[in-house]
Specification:
Organism: Sedimentibacter saalensis
Bound molecules: iron/sulfur cluster
Order of helices and strands: EEEHEEHEHHHHEHEHEEHHHEE
Protein name: Peptide/nickel transport system ATP-binding protein/oligopeptide transport system ATP-binding protein
InterPro entries: AAA+_ATPase (IPR003593), ABC_transp_ATP-bind (IPR050319), ABC_transporter-like_ATP-bd (IPR003439), ABC_transporter-like_CS (IPR017871), Oligopep_ABC_C (IPR013563), P-loop_NTPase (IPR027417)
Shape: globular
Family: Belongs to the ABC transporter superfamily.
Number of helices: 11
Structural class: alpha/beta
Helix content: 25-40%
CATH superfamily: P-loop containing nucleotide triphosphate hydrolases
Keywords: ATP-binding, Nucleotide-binding, Transport
Strand content: 15-25%
């Protein structure tokens, strides 16, 4: 299948100064991430806050430059793209954020919010107006809302508008950053169903960033699990959820409410230790302070990604022995 996004040895390091001291602290927010996303796929990216997943989204949106490696989008290397290629890419990747307030200007009507990206790309007003009407229909909202202001709409409606706006430029890829976290449970499924419908109608590719495993299970084909700047596990969603390989993923699943109700009696492995921080990265495998399987070797040496026979990828020494079976 055709690759639409490829991250190759992607790195985003930066320095911050802490408190009043002038000492600079080195942060490795993305540390050597490799990921290939196929056209029409829905990829979930799961991780706790501070795992680097938001930085990854910012790099993909070209809001921040990587410090190493590359992002290849439809064959074009983002770090080397010409101005024209960049302009085209901006129309091809759209984003929907968690908080509708950061998607929409409170002083703009729905019509103006949706039209803005089109006008900015030089579309005549009349055509833009029609496109805005069409895209409102796509997100199954009545056109009478075109003259509404954000404060007059519910959270679910606002998220539909944000999606309509993301769609107007006919993107190929949508980055959905916690698309349902700010919504009531009852509305979440509606928005996820809408996203699934749109994905199917337009053959879109989604990268869904979330800490919510229910969202991942509901929507994504494959899931990447991120921990302290690295992708520690990547594989088909059901595989990763039902048969997690990395000890961190195992802990995530055990601590999550989507646990199989029949498994209630199973002794749960609850993750020990604090969630870790990008600012004070543990040596060797970053997960070792919390890992029940950690050995001395884990403290000293970082593991390498291992591709298991079923295609599932895992970044843990435990699997070194099964490599190449
Ligand atoms: Fe645990 Fe070692 Fe695997 Fe890290 S490499 S997850 S510490 S077993």
């Amino acid at each position: 299948s055709e690759e639409v996004i490829e991250l190759k040895n992607l790195k985003k390091y930066f320095t911050i100064s802490k408190g009043i001291s002038t000492k600079k602290i080195y942060v490795k927010a993305i540390d050597d991430v490799n990921l290939k996303i196929n056209k029409g796929e829905i990829i979930g990216l799961v991780g706790e806050s501070g795992s680097g997943k938001t930085t990854l989204a910012r790099v993909l949106l070209n809001l921040t430059k990587p410090t190493g490696g590359s992002v290849v989008f439809n064959g074009v290397n983002l770090t080397k793209a010409t101005r024209n290629e960049m302009k085209k890419l901006r129309t091809e990747v759209a984003v929907v954020f968690q908080d509708p307030a950061s998607n929409l200007n409170p002083r703009d009507t729905v019509m103006n919010s949706i039209m803005r990206p089109l006008i900015l790309h030089g579309m005549p007003k009349k055509t833009a107006r029609q496109k805005a009407i069409d895209s409102l229909e796509l997100v199954k909202m009545d056109v009478r809302y075109l003259n509404s202001y954000p404060h007059q709409l519910s959270g679910g409606q606002l998220q539909r508008i944000a999606i309509a706006r993301a769609l107007v430029l006919n993107p190929k890829v949508m980055i959905l950053d916690e698309p349902t976290s700010a919504l009531d449970i009852s509305v979440q499924a509606q928005i996820l169903n809408l996203l699934l419908d749109l994905q199917e109608s337009f053959g879109l590719t989604y990268l869904v960033i979330t800490h919510d495993l229910n969202v991942i299970r509901y929507i994504s084909d494959r899931v990447a699990v991120m921990y302290l700047g690295k992708i520690v596990e990547f594989g088909p969603t059901e595989e990763v959820i039902n048969n997690p390989k990395h000890p961190y993923t195992e802990g995530l699943m055990a601590a999550s409410p989507i646990m199989d109700p029949h498994d209630r009696d199973k002794e749960k492995y609850i993750m020990q230790g604090d969630p870790g921080s990008l600012i004070n990265l543990p040596s060797g495998c970053h997960f070792h302070p919390r890992c029940p399987y950690a050995s001395e070797h884990c403290k000293e040496e970082s593991p390498q990604i291992i591709v298991l026979p079923d295609g599932h990828q895992v970044d843990c020494h435990k699997y070194a022995a099964v490599k190449n079976i």
